[in-house]
């Protein structure tokens, strides 16, 4: 009985988390956007940079970490500009009407928007027909997570 109750509580906690963060891909522990990487750094430094908990901001129920107060303040002033497309899910996966996690090192900036991918191989596939995949993903988003 105790194991069944514990399992039920765990299931409910996961279900509530999934529902609450349904539009943002977050790690379960800590609720971190982009696995704790600084979304602004992709634009400014053209590379993934690990954020610091000292510079954290909550937006759309995710915790976003930044490598500096300046980057945090840029994000706070315009989060839609810096947040990854498709809630931070793999752009290729969303184009295929599903979701997948990401590797923060696998990114592309297109028309001043941040796109993330699951792996280097997936990013290579995605980049080969990027514009068509973006159109398909735009059509699928956000329905794919609802």
Give structural notes:
The chain is α+β, with helices and mostly antiparallel strands. It has two domains: 24-83, no CATH class; 88-146, no CATH class. 43% of the residues lie in helices and 14% in strands. The protein contains seven helices and four strands; from the N terminus they run H-H-E-E-H-H-H-E-E-H-H. It has helices at residues 2-20, 39-44, 69-77, 79-82, 91-95, 120-128, 130-140, and strands spanning 52-59, 62-66, 107-110, 113-116. Strands 1-2 form a two-stranded antiparallel ribbon. A hairpin with a 2-residue loop joins strand 1 and strand 2. The protein is globular. Mean pLDDT is 87; it is low at 2-22.
């Amino acid at each position: 009985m105790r194991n069944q109750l514990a399992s039920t509580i765990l299931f409910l906690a996961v279900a509530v988390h999934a529902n609450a963060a349904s539009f943002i891909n977050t790690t379960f522990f800590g609720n971190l956007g982009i696995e704790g990487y600084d979304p602004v750094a992709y634009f400014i430094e053209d590379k993934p940079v690990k954020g610091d908990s000292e510079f954290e901001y909550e937006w759309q129920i995710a915790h976003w970490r930044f490598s500096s107060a300046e980057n945090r303040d840029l994000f706070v002033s315009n989060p839609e500009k810096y947040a990854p497309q498709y809630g931070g899910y793999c752009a290729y996966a969303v184009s295929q009407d599903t979701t997948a996690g990401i590797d923060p090192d696998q990114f592309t900036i297109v028309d001043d928007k941040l796109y993330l991918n699951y792996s280097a191989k997936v990013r290579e596939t995605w980049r080969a027909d990027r514009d068509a995949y973006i159109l398909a993903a735009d059509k699928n988003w956000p329905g794919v997570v609802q």
